[in-house]
# Entry
Amino acid sequence: MALVREVGDIMLLTDLNIERSYRSNKNNMIKDFYNPTLSVATSYKRAVGYFTISSLINASQGLSNLISNGGTVQIIASPKLSEEDINTINLGYRMKFDVILDAMIREFNNIESENVKQKLNYIATLIADNRLDIKIALMDDYGAYHEKFGIIEDALNNKIMFTGSMNETNNGQYTNFESFVVFKSWDKESNEYVKEYELDFNDLWENKTNRLDVQAFPEALKNKLLEYRKSNYIPEQSIDSNVEDVNYLVNDMEYPLLPKWFNPRPYQDDAVNSWCDNNYRGLLSMATGTGKTLTGLYGVTRLWNDLQKLAIVIVCPYQHLVEQWVEDVKAFNLSPVICYSKYSNWRERVYRKVKLFNYGTINNFTLVTTNATFSTKEMQDFLGNVNGDILLVVDEAHNAGTTSMKKCLDDKYKYRLGLSATPKRFRDEENTKFIFDYFGGEVYSFDLERAINEGYLTKYYYYPHKVRLTDEEQEEYNQLSLKIAQNIKEINGRVVINDYAKNLLIKRSKLVAGASNKLVELRKLMSQYSNRNYILVYCGATKTTDESDGSEERQIRKVCQILWNEYGIKNRKFTAEETPDERAEIIEMFSDGTDLQAIVAIKCLDEGVNIPAIQHAFILASSTDPKEFIQRRGRVLRLYKGKEFAYIHDFVTIPNMDENSTKSSLVESELKRVYEFNFLAENSEQGEDFINELLETYNIDRENIVDARDKYNIGGLIDEE
# Structure
């Protein structure tokens, strides 16, 4: 910041360390030039090609001091027009001045920030008191007024004149790469330039410049601005002046702040306290539906209160989760930059945020991005340039063990918060260890059993249904199992499986998921649900054969047809194929409970999608990964008005009755899910009978199926889906 020397009670331009030139690569135009010079000035004259109200707000701290010095501001400018505005003028549809007036008034639309409104109140008061005057410069042909210079004068008539590329716009002052040179009246060689430009400005102000028509500030625009004037105003020195959002839709006093409606639950307090006590690092393992996002933002707020300067980076596996986080982030008084492919300008905005943060103009910025975008070199380069503390928040933190994510998780993120209902990676001890080590261990756990018992999730009934493979399916299953066994080797005590066998495992898994008798069982159950709402059917990403007509097609498509054609159940599929807008429409219709009775999904609901109205779940297909089936159950257990219990129907695939070793391994795999679901069910005794029958029939040791309750690294090969 420029140095200011006091002489009595008078501060002068000659007391400032004013540079000969200013460039965006080395200067913050507002902090280094505008605010210091205007703070000691008594007069500011500016002639500029493009002008927006945002430039006044950005420099309002300096303007405040200038006004308190008894000073005045005179601005001559041409408004910034859109391409549509220019076309309208060129085609002669409307008078040029009318179009310009509309363009300037547009700046005042959609202003939401109370802080910005207070600043506009301040500026409106200056205009009303004749201390700030603006005139509009129009060309007498179709050209544009593009001049850019300014004159600043202090109480002893010292003056500086500056001229260069910068417009009086938000982009000019913050975003663009700009430069200008400065001439000082107390410098003999520069004084002639100052005098010449002052005469030019006076001619402009008096409308004596050829080819230009300089008009008074439009009355309609003045009236629009005066709408923000109140009977009193806060002195500008007490208002935070770090405004940098072009459309003023951002609260310029941006920092994490708890919403008034947010009252942390006891377990959320405990979770955040544990994280804080672990030096703001750690994994929070919290059951689906217990408010991980709000708990995370509560932690963000606690860290901000301690540091007062913080960059926040929130990473989510999917785009729909980014959008959900953004809504909650905004509720905590933050205006995040959304970073993924849909938002083409995210690079420009991140660059600007980092620059402002490094200059000290802002003390906080927040990014919400996908795993894919976060993992790009471009994003990592941006974040590598941050001079200050960064908090990294990773949602569904079990995904942080992938190769692309691991390479980005380094020491530049001093503070780390991982959130997941299932932080351990299935059959991946090495990367699970990496996740736990990087985040600083699991510092708090709030499991499903406790959440249900304490009333934060809905109690549920669980109904497993046996579905037998057909003879043809059993034969194919046996052949696949034989080929898989032939491509498995044990090397140094470790089981190694080649890529061919991995593909066979996936194929076998799809065979189990698409067992044709699942449609037979579904028809039996759906005959009782034709008049019910809030139904969810989980399908596999596979094809299935309908034994009723021999047709083969995608399981999800066939289920949708059965629900509507045979039982009149209004339904929509919910997959990766639907756009975000379509998904939002589906959720709204479903939650309303009138226009849509059922949602038919594949994997897209597994992580993060919040549809608490779901009451009846039918799980046709599920992988052996506990992460998946635990999160699927969580989708159904969220609290909702009028929802006393949830009901889960689980389609359990079993072989036909011919005896061989591969059949018992299939049942054992399915029973791990059944045991976990049944453990907390209201009707667990009924489920125990189902489990015991299959254990006895297929000669399975109970100990082999109980480890999924708290051990997600189950021994074996790979996730078969």
Summary: Residues 459-470+516-709 form a domain with the Rossmann fold fold (CATH 3.40.50.300).
